[in-house]
């Protein structure tokens, strides 16, 4: 049940959430929320989706997403219905009807004194493995599987060359990040709720040019993902041939036409406006590895949405990432701008969620650069968000790396940033 009092008791009020069959995709459940008997509807009333995470209330946590009630015909008569895509974000979710939300801002504008009604919770399976994604290490024949559950449990990834027959079980290492590790708002305030257990398991000794079938989950609970598959690249060699696609700044937006909280947007500027008509775009692309920036900006929910949306690609192809300003920049945390500029673009994340959620073969957790071989190519991935000037640790890494690369094996050297 919600942890705050409903501000006004309205006799005629009825707000019911009922889970429908899946109108969107297999990654999610659609939920239709309907309401009636709202006494004084305004053009800026909002239906918002919340998560029942520990230690959060409507006053301390931003909505997962929201929609203006006026998108439903008849809202001005006090009733309506809107369908949301509801992901498994480890805790039950529920809808809240707010009266007259005037703006998003750097503080939470969705407060309990504006709550008109609260729905029943929508149940989920807390330890269903979600957000699966693959990457390479810097060792040939290794692939890392990462995923998220609520509790640590007994996390494993299993792999084999025949569908349904797993000959290798790799125990996962698990991380999380507490609110106290976040360095500023909204990451340490209304953007934060329990991000869950972030698992990564390394599959080793994989043969080249081979299709593998795998799943990930909890061996004690016997709760696993569906089976996915990937094909390993050829061994690094001058004669090898690989295909890949690189992209940057992909971002994410929710797929159901609702809005996510963005503290940079004023309500009357963007499609979060009660008066606007623009629809947000749902982005996707195909890849063998990538450079990207999730538009997380300090909100746990945006990471959850990002990985669920990209799962069809990320579970098929190892993806190699670098951070951008929205993942990394926070004053006095080692970003390259400070003290010249005090950039707060990560919304207080300072790279910690990025590093734990996208485990790359970096020298240390906080050194977000690395290299690896892929077919005839030696890739060097460098971070523009950390110092790279002469003498810096990143510069030293690149110098050493260039001196040790064997051009007879990988005649191509490609540097990304
Ligand atoms: C390979 O990756 C590991 C982390 O997975 C790192 O500790 C090591 O320094 C990397 N090796 C090189 C040569 O970059």
TrEMBL record:
One of its GO terms (cellular component) is extracellular region. Its main location: secreted. Residues 129-232 form the Purple acid phosphatase N-terminal domain. The keyword Ubl conjugation does not apply. Keywords: Secreted, Signal. InterPro entries: Fn3_PAP (IPR040974), Metallo-depent_PP-like (IPR029052), PAPs_N (IPR015914), Purple_acid_Pase-like_N (IPR008963). It holds the Pfam family fn3_PAP. It is found in: Secreted. Residues 1-21 form the signal peptide. GO terms for molecular function: acid phosphatase activity; metal ion binding. Transmembrane segments: none annotated. The keyword Transport does not apply. Residues 28-104 form the Purple acid phosphatase Fn3-like domain. This is Purple acid phosphatase.
């Amino acid at each position: 049940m919600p942890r705050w009092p409903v501000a006004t008791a309205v006799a005629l009020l009825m707000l019911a959430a009922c889970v429908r069959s899946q109108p969107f995709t297999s990654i999610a459940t659609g939920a239709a929320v309907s309401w009636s008997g709202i006494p004084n509807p305004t053009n800026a009333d909002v239906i918002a989706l919340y998560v029942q995470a520990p230690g959060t209330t409507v006053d301390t946590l931003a909505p997962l997403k929201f929609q203006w009630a006026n998108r439903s015909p008849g809202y001005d008569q006090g009733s309506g219905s809107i369908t949301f895509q509801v992901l498994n974000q480890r805790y039950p979710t529920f809808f809240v009807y707010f009266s007259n939300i005037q703006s998003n801002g750097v503080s939470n504008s969705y407060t309990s004194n504006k709550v008109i009604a609260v729905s029943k919770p929508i149940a989920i399976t807390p330890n269903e493995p979600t957000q699966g994604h693959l990457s390479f290490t810097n060792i040939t024949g290794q692939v890392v599987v990462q995923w998220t559950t609520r509790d640590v449990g007994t996390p494993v990834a299993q792999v084999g060359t025949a569908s349904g027959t797993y000959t290798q079980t790799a125990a996962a290492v698990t991380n999380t990040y507490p609110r106290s590790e976040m360095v500023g708002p909204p990451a340490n305030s209304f953007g934060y709720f329990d991000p869950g257990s972030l698992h990564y398991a390394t599959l080793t000794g994989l043969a080249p040019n081979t299709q593998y079938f795998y799943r990930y989950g909890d061996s004690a609970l016997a709760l696993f993902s569906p089976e996915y598959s990937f094909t390993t690249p050829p061994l690094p060699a001058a004669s090898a041939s690989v295909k890949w696609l690189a992209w940057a700044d992909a971002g994410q937006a929710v797929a159901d036409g609702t809005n996510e909280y963005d503290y940079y947007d004023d309500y009357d500027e963007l499609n979060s406006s009660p008066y606007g008509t623009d629809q947000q775009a749902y982005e996707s692309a195909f890849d063998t590895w990538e450079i990207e920036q999730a538009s997380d900006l300090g909100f746990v929910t945006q990471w959850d949405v990002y990985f669920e949306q990209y799962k069809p690609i990320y579970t098929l192809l190892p993806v190699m990432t670098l951070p951008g300003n929205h993942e990394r920049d926070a004053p006095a945390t080692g970003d390259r701008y400070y003290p010249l500029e005090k950039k707060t673009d990560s919304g207080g994340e300072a790279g910690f969620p990025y590093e734990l959620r996208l485990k790359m073969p970096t020298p240390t957790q906080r050194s977000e650069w690395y290299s690896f071989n892929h077919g005839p190519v030696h890739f060097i991935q460098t971070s523009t968000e950390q110092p790279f000037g002469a003498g810096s640790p990143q510069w030293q890494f690149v110098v050493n790396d260039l001196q040790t690369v064997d051009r007879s094996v990988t005649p191509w050297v490609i540097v990304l940033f």
